[in-house]
Amino acid sequence: MAFSGFDHRLLGALRRADVTWSRTYVLQRVLRAVSGTTLFSRHVAAVSGVAGELPRLQGVLANFADTAQPRASLLRALCAGADEAVGRAMAQWGDEPVLVRAHRTVSGLVAALDDPAGHTPSRWKDLALTAAADLDGLAPHLRRLVERRFDTAWAAPDGEFTPAGLDLVADEVACLVAAADRDPHTLAADLAGTHLSGTHLAGAGDAASVRRVLLPVPVRYRVAVVVHGASTLARISALDPTAAVSSFADVEPLGFGATGGRLRAFAGRVATPGQACLVACEVRAVDEASAARAARRALSELLDQYAAGHRLVVLAPGPAAFVSAVDSGKSGVVLPRRQSVDRAEPLVPGWPSALRGGLRMAHVARTTEAAMPATALAWVTLEACGLENRADLASALSLQALRQQVAETHQQLHQAAAEVLGDARARAGESRRRVVALRRALERCPQDHPDHAGLRARADRTERELVAAQRHERLVEEQVGEGVRLLGRYARCDGFGRLLDLNTWVDVLLPGRPEEDPALTTARTALDGVVAHTSPLASHQVEEWSTRLADPRACAAWLEESRRRTALFLDTLYVVRNVAFHSGRFRTAGDVALAAGASLAVDFALEVLGNWYRTSPGSAASPSRVVSALADRQRAVVSRLGKRAKPLYALDVARLTGPDDDVWHRQS
After folding, report:
1. Cα–Cα distances in Å, from 547 out to 406, 555, 655?
2. 265 C-beta neighbours (distance < 10 Å), count
3. Beta bridge partners of 284
4. How many Å apart are CA 639 and CA 34, to the nearest integer?
5. Cβ proximity of 85 and 56 under 8 Å
6. Is 197 helix (H, G, I), strand (E, B) or coil?
7. What sign has the CA pseudo-torsion 117, 120, 125, 131?
8. For position 215, what pLDDT does the model report?
9. Spatial CB neighbours of 194, under 8 Å, sequence gap ≥ 6
10. Over the stretch 76-106, which tens digit does the pLDDT of each residue have?
11. Is 335 left (phi over 0), alpha (psi -120 to 50) or beta?
């Protein structure tokens, strides 16, 4: 997996600005959490942050008070999960008033739902309505608390905050970033570019400046998209006072004012034969990409009205959007980001017939643009695969999360090493280009010219910078490039950088032993050298998993925590399915991030099944049997880890979620 937290431009800017380890770590962790290419277990939807769980619970409570959906047992599970998130925050941040009030509200609901004799369903609805209002009133106070804690962490010197403390701050900020629908690519570019100078990044008192980049104040955007299926949409302003419609030839009615010329150029590029028109509306958003998504969503909901009036007509917005900031006049064209490959392969040839329906639903869910329906369809996908048992699925996925995160440490170490090497080469290349340019300028400048002395001084300074950059490039190549090569001689990879045997990487992460292979000792020494030069997130992941693999009880605690958070997410998916399909709700707090997490969760479950069936071709086990077996294995692994004291030399991480029942067969 790759995401913008390892962008060499961003990390290079942070490095040259002397941004501290903890600041860089927080920024990288936030970027990873909101990225659509991250692992499910790392995604903001799965971290169960209090800034994500409480607003989501508030929406569920309001719906329960209105429709009695979801059922009380599910509501109780969500309340308990939100209360756990509050408890984690209180463990780090103490008895902050907003957290104390949130705990009182949510724990009171849990107690009421646990006592059906003392509360009738109608009383539950009254309690839910009161609690929803309480949580809604706490939302701005919670945001200010997270912002204040971010400011404190940003101003603190390295070492003052523990990694766990930084994790909490980063995860809660990521919840706010995701709720605002901040575009991850735009965010990384803003952090690396002109929105933050090096002084801002490096200074001690500039947390507010950094926050303004992470969480900009929403501004007004006017957005135009193509709508296929009709030449005009009558009375659209009656449905939305900001909406307007026009032909491709005359865009004046869309109301873009000074940016009308650029809009006309856009209209010329997207003009299409057949029945189509341009439709515009106004939205508030934190960046252009977010504005495009918000406008497409708003216009899609407007089209519901027209589709109802013309049952044989398909009305659909086109992919491109012209976005213009109302106040500044800055404009641009936003296109959807879509991944592509040269050659597409099935995940596993010969899937069991029981999975065919699930695969169809997974594809439909992934191509559904509306957030709530996409989330609901993600749960339908799991149901179609026969994975209705949320408790077993959470246990199985937590086991796979361990395997996946261990593999991720290797991938992201290599990405981080490539970033360091790339940045060093880029710096040296830029210095060389500047030296060549200044030499040419000196050759053309007469010695008696008044600018000659200054030009000579600049050329000399740039020559010294080039020497330093080349020295740094050689050092990085020796310590990082050579270290990666030595590491690869033991933990060998294929041509795409994927480990041939995950257990070889596990060996490198585990503590050394006197009788081990000398090549393993060399690889572990090389790893230490590489980690010393890589970015904070990559180096901390290596340290984190080295510690867990050496400490069975810490590993068991992590597995259980992962299981609980996954169970809460799956409960949320099921609730959204009920709310969307039974109550007809199509918006809720943080639903865009939830939809992204739902897609990742489905991919995660299919990866587990794919791993099983790929290593056991022709297996007759149904998907539900596979997940049930893995859930039993997770419980057995946790139990055994709780009784061990030695590092996990015997655990076969590579086959942890495969069909082989014995995952403790390696030499201990």
Report:
1. 12, 9, 21
2. 12
3. 220
4. 33
5. no
6. coil
7. negative
8. 94
9. none
10. 999 999 999 999 999 999 999 999 999 999 9
11. beta
